[in-house]
Amino acid sequence: MRNEQRLRSRTPESRAFVERVQLVMGLTARLNALPFDDLDGRRELLEEIFGNPVPDSLSILPPFYCDYGLGATFGEKVFINQGCYFLDLGGITIGDRVMIGPRVTLSTAGHPVELEERYDGITHAPIVIEDQVWIGAAATIAPGVTIGRGSVVGAGAVVAKDVPPMCVVTGTNMVERRRLKTVPEAARG
User: Is position 111 annotated as part of the catalytic site?
Assistant: First the structure.
């Protein structure tokens, strides 16, 4: 994955990450429990979640789920529909006039692919969504992906590589990328 970084387990950085995730999970639970018409309360909680003021033109409909918060930034006139998940440790940049459909997942984090490294921490890479993009319902955007200006990601698509500007992408096809190393029987456990 492009621009991949690692957060190793059992480090001061990973402990700080876990503490931040616990805080943000509590904040998103409070956000999702607010009456729908409590726009001021919603804005206050979003600013706590994201650690900065958010544009007045940002619209996020609950329920909304986020695990870190400090990695997300928003342009003007961004609309995020219900049931979205932002896993933003790696950074999520959303441009102006972006529309995100219901149940979309933006996941900047994962785990190392090789089995012997998989439980030693998490990998992360930024997601960039350029201006005037529309992401359809239940799409998933993987770590390290940039979606070019004006593009459309079809409902249910799984996007694991960059999308050029002014392009429509769809689909969920499984593609074998590579074979993993075989782990000796003694290491399985």
Answer: yes
92: nearest Cα among 138, 53, 143: 143
Q: Helix, strand or coil for residue 137?
A: coil
In this structure, are residues 4 and 124 in contact, taking their beta carbons and an 8 Å threshold? yes
pLDDT at res. 171: 85
Q: Do residues 130 and 124 make contact, with C-beta atoms less than 8 angstroms apart?
A: no
8 Å CB contact between 28 and 66:
yes
Residue 146 DSSP label: E
At 165, is the secondary structure helix, strand, or coil?
A: coil
User: Which of 8, 15, 111, 161 is the catalytic position?
Assistant: 111
Model pLDDT, residue 141: 96
The number of residues in the chain equals 189
Q: Whole-prediction pTM value?
A: 0.90
